[in-house]
Q: What sequence folds into this?
């Protein structure tokens, strides 16, 4: 959560050169993703969004994760956010939860967002 990030993680980075801080963040991300893919014995990791353009992050993922890294076509990478928010909107309109407790760590899943019609 944001609280943990602001109180615990960001202070660790403040007293170091920016290059070291960025390396630490990328390594942390790669290790966290690898721990989950290894835990669930993921065979293929589909990388999209801005991370798919980060060659150093991809290198670290390949180093740590015991799975195949799959990079989709450019349109999927570039339009991931649009696709995801469209899906979240579709769930919202269907009165289904679109903020899952398994993802957010919250006590329960909820239907988030607001629909405005012109």
A:
């Amino acid at each position: 959560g944001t609280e943990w990030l602001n109180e615990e993680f960001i202070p660790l980075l403040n007293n170091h050169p920016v290059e070291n801080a960025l390396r630490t963040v990328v390594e942390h991300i790669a290790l966290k993703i690898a721990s989950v893919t290894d835990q669930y014995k993921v065979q293929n990791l589909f990388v999209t969004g801005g991370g798919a353009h980060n060659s150093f992050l991809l290198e670290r993922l390949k180093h740590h994760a015991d799975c195949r890294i799959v990079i989709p076509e450019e349109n999927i990478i570039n339009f991931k956010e649009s696709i995801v928010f469209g899906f979240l909107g579709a769930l919202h309109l269907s009165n289904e939860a679109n903020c899952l407790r398994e993802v957010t760590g919250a006590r329960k899943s909820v239907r988030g967002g607001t629909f405005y019609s012109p």
